[in-house]
């Protein structure tokens, strides 16, 4: 507010010398008196001035206030993803993974050792594919696995028929085994020097087995199919049929024939 205005009157009086009456001249002026206070309008003097809002004067309070403000700002930044980093999933700390408790008395389990790598075991051989057998050679006795009787002949001449007979161990019941191909053999009678033969190379069921001068043809070649040391099938190479006693007879004197292979007991033989 500007200074107060005060009226100042200055009067000049001219003498009283008779008439006309004395004339007085007066002057007045308005003068501004400067105000001793410079406060805004409405200030009440002689009262206590109200404190203006602002930061606290205590430095510890200022530090605490600044720290709280920084924490609030960081919380907002992380919540809104400003400082969240990449979008990778959070990694679970190792301490948070549950570990199965070991039972009392058992030592603490260590980290499992890697299982040793080994080749897969070969599948066991099926009955149709027995394990390999060492090649046979030399004089052997052919014995019926079902009856225990041995294979001999009913005579010593050409075309004497093969038959079952009680085992004597004599040369007429020994057959010299000669390998001509893998698992393929000729069987030569040790006493007579003739080979076990399918008569006339026949492929018919029931064809006779006999001894005949060796000529090396397929009807004198035999496949011995079976495991080492166990019963085997005697299969004629030319016909694919098996040797067995006629009509499955297991008695002494039963003559041998070729028949379709069934792996029945009368068709099983041991070679020793």
Q: Which secondary structure elements does this structure contain, and how are they paired or packed?
A:
Layout: E1 4-13, E2 24-33, H1 59-80, E3 138-144, E4 150-153, E5 162-165, E6 174-181, E7 184-189, E8 195-198, E9 209-212, E10 222-225, E11 233-236, E12 242-245, E13 256-259, E14 269-271
Antiparallel strand pairs: 1-2, 3-6, 3-14, 4-5, 6-7, 7-10, 8-9, 10-11, 12-13
Explain this structure to me?
By secondary structure, the chain is mainly beta. Among the domains are: 4-33, no CATH class; 138-271, Trefoil (Acidic Fibroblast Growth Factor, subunit A). Helices cover 8% and strands 28% of the residues. The chain is built from 1 helix and 14 strands. The chain has one helix spanning 59-80; strands at 4-13, 24-33, 138-144, 150-153, 162-165, 174-181, 184-189, 195-198, 209-212, 222-225, 233-236, 242-245, 256-259, 269-271. The strands form 5 sheets. A 6-stranded antiparallel β-sheet has the order 11-10-7-6-3-14, with no helix packed on it. Strands 1-2 form a two-stranded antiparallel sheet. Strand 4 (150-153) and strand 5 form a beta hairpin. It starts with a strand and ends with a strand. Mean pLDDT is 75; it is low at 1-19, 21-30, 93-97, 102-109 and 116-127.
Described by strand count, sense and barrel closure, the largest sheet is: 6 strands, antiparallel
Output the helix-strand order.
Answer: EEHEEEEEEEEEEEE
The appropriate CATH architecture of one domain is: Trefoil
Q: What integer value in Å does the Rg equal?
A: 66 Å
Q: Give the helix level as a range of percent.
A: under 10%
Number of helices: 1
